[in-house]
Amino acid sequence: MERREHLTLTFHSPEVPKIKGNRKYQRPTLPAKKHPSASMSSQRQQQLMDQAHIYIRTLCGSLCSFSLLTLIAMSPLNWVQFLVIKNGLELYAGLWTLCNHELCWSHTPKPPYYLQYSRAFFLISVFTILIGLGWLFSSWLPSRGSMTTNLDLKVSMLSFISATCLLLCLNLFVAQVHWHTRDAMESDLLWTYYLNWCSDIFYMFAGIISLLNYLTSRSPARDENVTVIPTERSRLGVGPVTTVSPAKDEGPRSEMESLSVREKNLPKAGL
What we know:
mainly alpha, Butyryl-CoA Dehydrogenase, subunit A, domain 3, 3-stranded antiparallel β-sheet, PMP-22/EMP/MP20-like, transmembrane helix
């Protein structure tokens, strides 16, 4: 009778530290996702993301509208105060207003045409932001909500263009003031001029927000139809991990059954 070798299988069970005196101590488990968004469907998450994008567009539209109304309200007012050095006479003028004095400028274009260039950039800034606001308002309509593609990117570009044109307008106006006063008068910019700078900052801020909204909207959404195959790993990195597909599992089973039948027949053959 042949002597069979006994195989010994050992299973590794990592030791878990116990707390002295605490009988209710349990083994540590992996953290579970307890955030509300973990159990939320992808459709619901996409709906919330769309609502967030709409709120951000509303914020950008509000900033641009406020800046535009500020520019329109400040345009007929005086932006600068002139003080005549000889007699101390005070004169006031603006981008579109005149002081009706021989020392002030007139509507007649004169080189270096700083005033005319400033007015041109002011008009470009107003018309550009009007186009952007028109696209925003049309996107809020139910029938035309999805007609404008890349709306956030277009609004961002128009906001930056409008802010740049307004910046050039304000700088050219200051150049006109310095060139016109020279040695005969002193100039002092009024609060209405500085309020236009606030509008320019709001334009830039709206453009940055709209650009970030465009970048976040381009991120791909999670699809529930995509199947993910989980990967198996040994606990604490001890021992190899074997993955056997269901199709290939039938072959080893048949081989094990044949081996067990042979082992049962060996004692009978020895006898």
